[in-house]
Amino acid sequence: MSSRRTTTIAGSLVAASFSAVMILSFTASADDQGPGSSKGGKAVDEAPAGVKLTTLLPSRISVDNGSQKTALTATVKNGGTKDSGKIQLLVVGFDGLTVKGVQGCSQIDGKNLPAGSNSGFSCPIDNLAAGKSKSFAVDATYDVHKTGKICLPVQSGDGKKTYWQQGPVPFGTTNPSPNAPATPLLLGTDNKPVAPGGSKELPKTGVGRDVLPLGAAGASLIAAGAAGLWWSSRRPTAQRLRG
Q: Which of 112, 119, 168, 243 could cross-link with 93 by S-S, CB 3.0 to 4.6 Å?
C-alpha cells in the first residue's frame, strides 16, 4: 500500500512539473521577439564627429490573426565615443503595417507623412550618451492579407539631417497560416499574404498583382530599394512638425 501511494505521489509531481515547464515555456516564447537587428539600415547624412547612430528592430514578431494586433520594440543606439545631442527617432508604417502608438512619442500629422506611408510617430531624444541606447514600445496592427513594412529614420533634433535610416524593411512570412491563432513574421522577409477568406491560395506576383496602392514616390522607393531617399526629400516638412 505504501509503495502504491509513493508511486501515485511521484507520478503527480512529475505531471505537475511538466505542466509548469509547459506554462513557463509558452510565456517566454510569447514575449520573445528574438535578438535586435539593424537589417535594412544604412547611414545617410554624416553624423557629428564621434557619434555613430543605428537602430534595431526585433528579428521576429507575432500578429494576432483575430485582432491583427502586434507589438514590437524600436531601439536607437549610439555606438560612438561622444554624446549625440538632440536627435529624434521616427517610427513609420507602410502597407499592411500600421503604427498605432509609440510610448512617449507624438503622432505625425497625415499631411506630413512620407509618401506611401500610412502612419508615423516622432520620438524626441534630448541626448543619447556614447555607448547607450534607448528603446520605445510600439503598438501596431498588421493585415496579414497584405505586405507590411516599417521604417526607422534617426534625424538631428531640427530634422534637417537624417543620420541613419532602417527601412522601409518588411516583416513577413513565406508560409502563411490563416487558421492559426497567430502568425509569426520575420524581419527582412517579404510577406506572402493569404487570400481573403482564409484561403491558402497565394496571389499572383509580378505585373498586375494585388497590392496596396502607393504614391509614385513611395512605389519608386520600394522598387529601387533606396533607403534614405524618401525622408531626405521631405526634410522641410519634418521641420514643420516642431512648428
A: 119
